[in-house]
Amino acid sequence: MSQYQNIYAQKIYDIMAAYIGDIMSKGALRAQCKILGISEESIEAHNIPLLAEKLRKGLIIFVGSEGANQIATQIIQMY
Amino acid sequence: MKKPKLMWIVTGIIILVNLLTYLWVKGKALLYVSDLLPVVCAFLSLLGVLSAFRGFKTFDLAKIAWFLIFIGLLFNFIAESTYGFMEIVVQTDMNETFPTMADLFWCAAYLAFFSGLALMIVGYRRSGMPLGKLKTNIGLSLFFVIVSIIVIIFLCIPVISDDETDAFSKVVYLWYPIGDVLVVSMALMLISMMSQFGIGKISLPWILLASGFLFFTISDLLYSYLGWQELYHNGNLIDLGWNVGYLLIGLAGLYQRQLVESIQKKK
């Protein structure tokens, strides 16, 4: 169970972990933040739509388009 | 009872039956078991992977990748059935007949397996996820190089330099080890990538899938070597590798379906 200081990182992690588990959620969040040139602890509200889209694309191969859309939609809803 | 749990129980029973039969049964009964058990295992794996394929609603990269694995298994199932039919019903001496119709289906299956696994790797690379730990990648690369060298020295060179074998048979003989090396390289990449995430519900299907192909490859390479040396006979324990491989791939399909369904249920 991860604890982030950044409230957005924690919320994204919580949403994802419920679907795909702890380790993959941390890995996916870290990887996509890195691509955006930010760290998990520096996520800001305006990063969320792009981050959600990156996470959606990244998850398709594991859970299919519907699953990935479902997770990304929940992340965007907190924006 | 959940399907993966049931499949684990069936897997355990099949492995036990396989081992006990091979150790104690002789003659015709051994022939039937060694020919029919792969057909049963291939059928179970087909059902598992079909379940995964049907779980995806959209024809995206994930669905196409699982579809290709399904097609490969379908070819393998046809090949196993053809082999069994030829040996049990037609009573063809399979040690003297090569290549057979079954070999053509097995060879075709490699193309589907390789494409399916390659698509998964492409999808993973597109996902932006980390590509794996350097140490693991170096270790796997070394393993791949060693396996390739062994395959070239002990399988490819003897086949190529044999004057008594016709060109078509040589192509089929070579297809197996080369196909194995290519498929196992894809499987090793999957394991390398997934090893970063431990064994979780999202990585389990891929780990089982890749492990299934590893079992296939080990048995295939041993079979190719023993077959070439004319040392392979019915009831050889290397058959166990194919059967375990099929069952692991089937389990991978069931876990993939379970994962997709668990997400859909949370809607």
Q: Quick summary of this structure?
A:
The complex is a heterodimer of chains A (79) and B (267). Chain A has 79 residues and is mostly helical.
Structure description:
The complex is a heterodimer of chains A (79) and B (267). With 79 residues, chain A is mainly alpha-helical. Chain A contains 3 helices and no strands. Chain B has 8 helices and no strands. The A-B interface holds A 18-24, 27-28, 30-32, 35, 54, 57-67, 70-71 and B 55-58, 60-63, 65, 120, 123-124, 126-130, 196-198, 200-203, 206, 259-260, 262-264, 266-267.
Number of helical stretches of at least 4 residues of chain B: 8
Strand count of chain A: 0
Shape of chain B: globular
User: In this structure, how is the largest beta sheet of chain B organized?
Assistant: none
Biggest interface in this structure?
A: A-B, 27 and 32 residues
Share of residues in strands of chain A: under 5%
* Strand-pairing-aware structural class of chain A: mainly alpha
